[in-house]
Amino acid sequence: MSRLGVREWLAVGRVFANGTLLRTDDGLHTCLNFEKELAVYTGAGQALAVSSGTAALICALQACGIGPGDEVLVPAYTWMASAGAVLLVGAVPVLVEVDDTLCMDPDDLVAKITPRCRAVIPVHMLNRPCDMERIMPVAQQYGLQVIEDACQAVGVRYKGRFCGTIGDIGTFSFNQHKNMTCGEGGAVLSNTSGLMARARNAHDMGIGFRTAGVPDRDAIFLGSNYRISEIQGAILRVQLKKLPRRLSKTRSRVAILTKALKKAGYPVAPHNDPDEVAGLVLTFDTEAEAVKFAARRGARRIFDNSKHVYTEWGPILNRRMAHPGFSPWEWIGGSNGPAPDSCPKSLDLLRRSCAVNAMTDAPLPLVRYLARKLAA
């Protein structure tokens, strides 16, 4: 969880002094400047700030033209919003198993593809990137659009590229518990100008009429309101400057913890990019071992983490939408969709796995001491 400090307070104070809080008015343009800085930082062609990671996913799906009659492949281990956003645009999520890295299993991805599949959402969980080198060729072979969910890996790289910039379009979250935060917020990133034009349309019901350079006004569709304020933009500009140092601290502490636990013989889960390790998971032989280890300070069993496990997605499993007439499953003309027994391999892995807190804000001597305690 990223912390806020004096610099954020001063940045917000400047917005208050200016008096303009709405990003579309002529103020300090903190949101616009943040988007430019985020695009430069990540190497994305364009970035768009939105109100949450969920909003970013909805905008990305709408940008890709996903809707009724479509299926979208989603991992069994992710925050509920990855699948929920799919349903909110009228499509149906199809669950894919995770592998030993706790990210989407490329082999099961192939097995779950149907003629109705239009997109795949690989999710980089716990600062641990997916195997994009295998996922991208599969997507290209089957004509799937790749919508990266990098909400839990903001600023993390995979094979030298930032997570969220590898697929067709990517999403970030700036929730309180993410690598950088403004309380609630998110972003959409892409190198494809057409997708970004549609994402921008999706995030603001009227921005197409206020923004110069709209390529085709006749193509403007009804959007929503996922804008952020100039206050959030000011905070995010400061947080982005802090992000490289914060992730550097995270990696150094994860390295200390990993070394201690490996030396003691603990089963450290594999990582899809060993050069970019910013998250630590242990996968035990039995569920009982995981439960016992999770009782230690700085550890938690992943299966206990509520809405990140698909069996806890009650409204989705029970197919309860806000109105009975809004039923993506009926629109698709079939019974496909998440069920409690969709991904048994993932449930087994999650029951046997523990995440270890990187203790990013703790002094290194304390981290070394706690690493020894964990490994004892």
From TrEMBL:
What the entry lists under Gene3D superfamilies is as follows: Aspartate Aminotransferase, domain 1, Type I PLP-dependent aspartate aminotransferase-like (Major domain)
Keyword Transferase applies: yes
Question: Is rRNA processing there in the keyword field?
Answer: no
InterPro entries on file: DegT/StrS_aminotransferase, PyrdxlP-dep_Trfase, PyrdxlP-dep_Trfase_major, PyrdxlP-dep_Trfase_small
A Pfam family annotated for this UniProt entry: DegT_DnrJ_EryC1
* GO molecular function annotations of the record: transaminase activity
**Keywords associated with the record:** Aminotransferase, Pyridoxal phosphate, Transferase
Q: Which family does it belong to?
A: Belongs to the DegT/DnrJ/EryC1 family.
Protein's name according to its UniProt entry: DegT/DnrJ/EryC1/StrS family aminotransferase
